Each structure stands twice: as structure tokens, then as C-alpha cells.
Amino acid sequence: RCIRHVRLNSKVDSILRNFDEVKIISADCSIHSIQKVKSVKDLCAIGGGGTSMGSVIEKVDKMRPDVILTISDGYTDWNTKPTKAHQITLLTTNYSRPPFGVSIFI
After folding, report:
1. pLDDT at 3 over 90
2. Residue 63 has what DSSP assignment?
3. Which ranges of the chain would DSSP assign to H, the alpha helix?
């Protein structure tokens, strides 16, 4: 199931324009896919609830990215320690936010 969200797509597209290529990791409780994208048109987020971003963020941080950009409704547990990568979270609700990094409500 491919999830498309107009508000999120515009935010993600503005971020993608600053990079040649970005790896997008679709996850909820585990990693479902890793996609290399150059444009939001290439993006297909896969997931569907039951989210546990804390463990996913810790796994992604071990991949040694420069930035971890998380998109969430906030109905999740978050990582319990800071990441080595810069952590940015786009939130669609104000239910919760991670204790580390920058959170942006959209």
C-alpha cells in the first residue's frame, strides 16, 4: 500500500531539492523498504500503523547517515538516546515528539 500525502510531499520535496540523492526508509515497527529517490515523484512510503520509531531510528542511525528525517503522526515510542546523525521529525499531530533533535509540526 503506497501512502501519498500532499502536505508531506511538499515538505519532503523541498528537502530533496537540496540533495543529489536521498535514501528513503519506509518503516513502522520494522524497516519495509529502502528507496533511493531524487524527487518526491519517486517516493512511495509503505507502512500502516503499529509504529515503533524508537527501534527503527536506532537501526537507521547504525547505517551512519548524516540526517535522519522522520515523518510521523506522533503515536509512537521514540528513541531513548540521541542519534549520531542530525534528527529531524515532521509531525502531523502534536500528540508526542521525540526527546532529541528538531521537531516541525506541519
Report:
1. no
2. T
3. 6-16, 53-61
pLDDT digits (tens, 9 = 90+) for 41-86: 776 666 666 678 888 889 999 999 888 888 888 888 898 889 999 8
58-64: long-range contacts at Cβ-Cβ below 8 A with a sequence spacing of 24 or more?
A: 58/83, 59/31, 60/25, 60/27, 60/31, 60/85, 61/85
* pLDDT value for 1: 45
Total-model pTM: 0.75
Query: CB neighbours of 80 closer than 8 A, spacing ≥ 6?
Result: 54, 99
Half-sphere exposure of 42 (CA within 13 A, CB side): 14
DSSP assigned state of 40: G
Which of 63, 61, 45 lies closest to 100, judged by CA? 61
